[in-house]
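Quick one: Oxidoreductase from Actinokineospora fastidiosa, structure tokens please.
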Amino acid sequence: MTTLDGGPGRPGDAVFADAVRTANLAAPAEPAAAVTVRSAREAEAAIRFARANGMSVRVHTTGHAAATQLPMAGALLVRTDLAEPVTVDAENLVARVPAGAVWREVVTTAARHQLAAVHPIAPSVGVVGYLTRGGVGVHGRARGVAANAVRAFDLVTADGASRRVDAASDPELFDALRGGGGGFGIVTAVELALFPLASLVTGAAYWSLEHADQLVPLWRDWTVDAPREATTTLRILSGPAVAWAPGPVLCVAGAVIGGSAAASDADDLLDPLRAVAAPLRDTWHADGPAAALFAHEHPAGPRRTVGDHLLLDEIGRDGVTEFLRVAGEGSGSPLLAAELRHLGGALAEPDPAGGLLDHIDAQFAYVGTGSAADPTITAAAVEHSAVVRAALSPWDVGTTVPSMVATRTQPQGHLDASRALRAEAVRARVDPDGLFAGDVLPGSPG
Ligand SMILES: Cc1cc2nc3c(=O)[nH]c(=O)nc-3n(C[C@H](O)[C@H](O)[C@H](O)COP(=O)(O)OP(=O)(O)OC[C@H]3O[C@@H](n4cnc5c(N)ncnc54)[C@H](O)[C@@H]3O)c2cc1C
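--- reply ---
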């Protein structure tokens, strides 16, 4: 039973066990009760149940961001997994996405119509969590912050009522739902703008880490004037994701859109890198729009991880040197992945129709991921994350993108003070009793 027919589950029963599953196994969810809702009506019933039993309400979908959650003592955890398909209105370039859907479903459905979405680098990421927390996508430099592509939400608020929230019906709530830090209710569906895309060039090229001293500066120099149609990530990888490699590798992955120019734009990036050394593996190729979702070859399935995230200004050659010192060959880094995501382009431009997090004032996002397989391994990853953080601190802009925040203990902050106040005002209106208060991320810098 995954519905509220018999009430939410309690620790030890099957309903509870199904609803508390988290994709990050190192961050178990431990609420007082839990339920998986399959419809908006069940989400409404969950809120009634919580109120009747004096519980607060927490929400999740995949639990990918479970390590960012506050403790759930005394809460009812609602897992959204609505029993509806993703549908595409190709004429109006819009997808309707039920909460619970992951990006694989959206991207593959849209691709049948030669349409693309503002998706992340992995197919298993939940659509609602990514969009409500901002979202830096594989086409981010061309399309901007992913949340800007939302056209409407179906939301069940703390009063237990379902409502459709868009720019006309409730502009303040609509803005707050797009990067305002959460705590506004249970999203049951999203209407998302798509864009026409017949083909792109996408993939990942991997080199032995011994070439990183030459490759990282070349990639950084290319980012300075890179076309906005190209969004790429430079990653230093080790562990199961690259078990095929003889050791740690450097990877340049991403996607280039822009029609007939895409192939030559990709060559401008990749030819100088390939001239340094032949890649160990090179999957860059022209393909349909769905291929970009799989290009980063992210390992599938739940994992035990711990991580960190920073937004960085232009790092220049000095920043490259520091990054290599703490993540490159001989650094002793135990991290599974140390990534620099190239931002800028449309990601840096405020969108007049966007939400509270409508752009990102930074040139790069750092995301580090370590194994949390056991306490010793976790401690090593946490310790080294602090070393990376210190090394990159001269370029740290002091804010974060909520979708990339990796732990609730790391410094956060994504809204300026006036936007954080706007989010607070909306919360005070739609959730005056603070039913969803545990779901709120720290909002303003510092
Ligand atoms: C492999 C991998 C790749 C990733 N790639 C990217 C990337 O390219 N770009 C990027 O920006 N981020 C990326 N992320 C981060 C990801 O976007 C965030 O972890 C995001 O929060 C995941 O959303 P979720 O719904 O899957 O996670 P959950 O942990 O289920 O949800 C996270 C939060 O979203 C909110 N939420 C979820 N569902 C609902 C709902 N129905 N109603 C209301 N609130 C809800 C809640 O506040 C919840 O705590 C990646 C993460 C992983 C693990």
